[in-house]
Write a structure and sequence with these properties.
Oligomer: single chain
Number of helices: 4
Largest sheet: 4 strands, antiparallel
Shape: globular
Number of strands: 12
Low-confidence stretches: 6-37, 226-230
Strand content: 25-35%
Helix content: 10-25%
CATH topology: Gyrase A, domain 2
Mean pLDDT: 74
CATH architecture: 2-Layer Sandwich
Distance between the termini: 21 Å
Number of domains: 1
Order of helices and strands: EEHEEHEEEEEHEEEH
Length: 230
């Protein structure tokens, strides 16, 4: 059975956690079947800290379903389920917009056709070592993907140093479930490093290595049609 991890931090040379509470615990989640998945997607989360999100938030509060649409019927936001193992981590983030529906905790995620970023731009996935010395996964994207990711993490979504409010969160969605949402601290480009906190025992480290292999394999099967392991 394959398991997908929740990264403690996305480094990407530019994306990280703004506060200690941003780091979500590493944990396994239910099996994912690639042939039925929606793959990898990066999206900006709606936030109580940003007044421009209030309209979307208000629409989301009264929406019984998952999709929030504008007057033309275009999806502008969606309630995305949070993986069960990460519920406690998301519940303590005051800036996030979350709800419980049918015993499932969901986060409100913004949709924008001009900046949507998906795994179709992925050109390589493999093992790496993070800045803290922990094992991780390196994601590399083509030029189009790099430009889109830079657009997604710049200007409107990049924090202003003079502001006290929490920066925007970049949601990492795999197979239609939200795994983590680190704070954007600067503009990103074509290479992303997802770092995982390592356990202290041999068994925990072995389990982490296997879960990283599973993550690499799942993304490779979905987007690269081959398994790339370093």
């Amino acid at each position: 059975m394959k398991h997908i991890l929740c990264p403690t931090v996305i480094v990407l040379l530019v994306v990280g956690c703004g506060q200690a509470t941003d780091a979500l615990p590493v944990a396994a989640v239910p099996e994912i079947k690639a042939e039925k998945s929606e793959g990898l997607t990066f999206r900006i989360l709606a936030s109580h800290a940003y007044p421009q999100d209030e309209d979307i938030i208000q629409k989301g509060v009264v929406e019984p379903g998952r999709d929030i649409r504008d007057q033309n019927g275009r999806i502008i936001a969606r309630w995305v389920p949070i993986v069960d193992s990460q519920k406690s981590g998301f519940e303590v983030q005051p800036d996030m917009v979350i709800r419980e529906r049918e015993k499932t905790l969901e986060a409100l995620v913004k949709y924008d056709d001009d900046t949507d970023f998906t795994g179709k731009y992925l050109t390589h996935v493999g093992r790496t070592i993070g800045r803290s010395g922990n094992p991780g996964v390196i994601l590399e994207f083509n030029a189009v993907g790099g430009n889109k990711l830079a657009q997604l993490t710049s200007v409107a979504n990049r924090p202003v140093p003079a502001q006290d409010r929490l920066g925007r969160r970049l949601g990492v969605i795999i197979n239609d479930s939200l795994f983590t949402a680190p704070v954007i601290i600067t503009t990103v480009g074509r290479s992303a490093s997802i770092e995982f906190k390592q356990g202290g025992t041999d068994a925990e480290r072995q389990k982490l290595r296997q879960e990283i292999d599973d993550l690499i394999g799942t993304l490779s099967e979905q987007y690269l049609q081959r398994v790339e392991k370093q």
